[in-house]
Amino acid sequence: MKKIITVAASAFLICNTLFSQTAGQKKILFDCTKAETSGNGDWVIDADLHDLNWSPGPVVGSGNTHSDPQILPTPSQTTITSSTAETYWEGALSYWAIDCVNYGYWVETLPYNGHITYGSGTNAQDLSKFDIFVVDEPNILFTAAEKTAMMNFINNGGSLFMISDHITSDRNNDGYDSPMIWKDFLTNNSVQNNAFGFAIEYQNFSDANYNSNVSTISNDSITRGPYGNVSEVKWSNGTCFTMTPSQNSKVKGHVWKSGKGQTDTAVVCVTSQYGCGKVAAIGDSSPPDDGTGNPSASLYTGYTGDANGNHRPWLMNMMIWLAEAPNCTTTGIKSSVTEGNELSMYPNPANDKVQVNFTNSSEKNAVLSLINMNGQVINAPQTHQKNNNQDVFVVDTTPLAAGIYYCKAQVDDKINIKKLVVIK
């Protein structure tokens, strides 16, 4: 059931729902700052209002019928079960989002007036607070600051899901379609151009008879993943990618255009790794479309209605792969724990002082080390006290630059390592 709720009720809902999150739960942020609901697009997980008016460029208030999603989908995701219907939320990506929730993930939307930042202490939806950032068919160029934020997010362990559509799909009439926008992101950023080892092509093609040109490698996480095997996909006007492994050896193709070999060209589904994070990309926005959402949009049953149901496990396998971050290629550090020696931190992300609790039944005091992305031990100011079977540390993060660090607590051969995000 959809209804407009008051500001006070919204605040109550947000507070209650946020406190219902599970500690350590993977969090997914779906973007709606780049005109994803313009034209016939409705690439959101839920919208209670449909009043946005996308003009060429940024949105201009109300006065039209484009979806206007709120941060948290309603009704609450905490009540979703395996029997929850796709129509529980109203958005073309609602079915996909409900599957993510049932898999154990937390989902939110970055609304049209939100901000793409990384390391900002004033943005409640800063990318440092999420594990996956999904951008489905952007129709507005990313700013230089946004591109830097996204690249730093990936480099420091976050995952980006890039979804494009075909050329001449400029839905808000500002002169840029999604292939152009993604190419600008890949080749015109201040961090590292062509960092992922693939480029997007300017094409418009369909594989109407179902494309069975998918990877059959037994350990392919995307086509042979935990959500099921994938044997075919359908392209309903989309584009593709070209891989350059010499730029990034981690780049991999998983599905190719019909009639093409499984080489570095004509790739319609590609993944890569960069720094400590991951990237997945597909060249068509139809596969995640569940066919329902904004009644003013022309939607399409791609998620479960096409390719004999293969799109659903294919997209979920990508989400699962993105959520499982790789070991950091810079430090070689990964989370580690010795049974019985738990480590917890609060708050995390942090921009001031962090309390670190380490379970320690030994009479000896544990030692806490802070390690940066280069594997160097940082002597951040800290205090320590013994409290029964716990070592309690307070770490002052204010002298540290924004980024990813690792807290390592150890006593004798007992050890625990966890990631700490510092924001400014």
Tell me the fraction of residues in β-strands, as a range. 25-35%
- CATH fold topology of the largest domain: Rossmann fold
Average pLDDT level: 89
End-to-end separation: 39 Å
> Given this structure, which CATH class of the largest domain is correct?
Alpha Beta
Shape: globular
The radius of gyration computed from the alpha-carbon positions, rounded to a whole number of angstroms, is 22 Å
Q: List low-confidence stretches.
A: 1-19
- Strand element count: 25
Key descriptive features of the protein:
424 residues; alpha+beta; Rossmann fold; Immunoglobulin-like; five-stranded antiparallel β-sheet; 25 strands; 30% strand; disordered N terminus
Q: Could you explain the architecture of this structure?
A:
It contains five helices and 25 strands. The protein is of the alpha+beta class and 424 residues long. The protein folds into two domains: 7-323, Rossmann fold (3-Layer(aba) Sandwich), CATH 3.40.50; 336-422, Immunoglobulins (Immunoglobulin-like), CATH 2.60.40.10. The protein has a seven-stranded mixed sheet with strand order 5-1-6-7-16-15-14. The protein has a five-stranded antiparallel sheet with strand order 17-25-24-20-21, with no helix packed on it. Residues 1-19 have low confidence and may be disordered.
